[in-house]
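To make this tangible, this section ends with a sequence with its structure tokens:
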Amino acid sequence: MIDIKVPAVGESISEVTLVKWLKKEGQYVERDEVIAELESEKATFEVNAEKAGTLKPVGKEGETLKIGDVVAQIDETAARPEGQSAAATQAAANGAGTQTAQPATATAAAATATAAAPAAQGP
């Protein structure tokens, strides 16, 4: 298990509030994936997973934490869920799976039109 600590965000800031967990307990997270949002008196910022693994939140939403406090732990020995590549996990985390695909007929028509267009001649 590795500890994810509240990062230093400025010289004058000594504590932050855990605003929201973006990932759930037991969920597999990738390295650098955003897992939570913290807020100071001056700004809101994100906490990223330092390693890939299973998330174990320590802090509670609405709780005030000091800089350096442990906000979460990650079990980096946990296996990635079957059938889920690192790229797929990251894409799901970024919301890429919610995009609508373009119909194949429109894509084929565009490719045909491009291929049929005469090449531009130079001077």
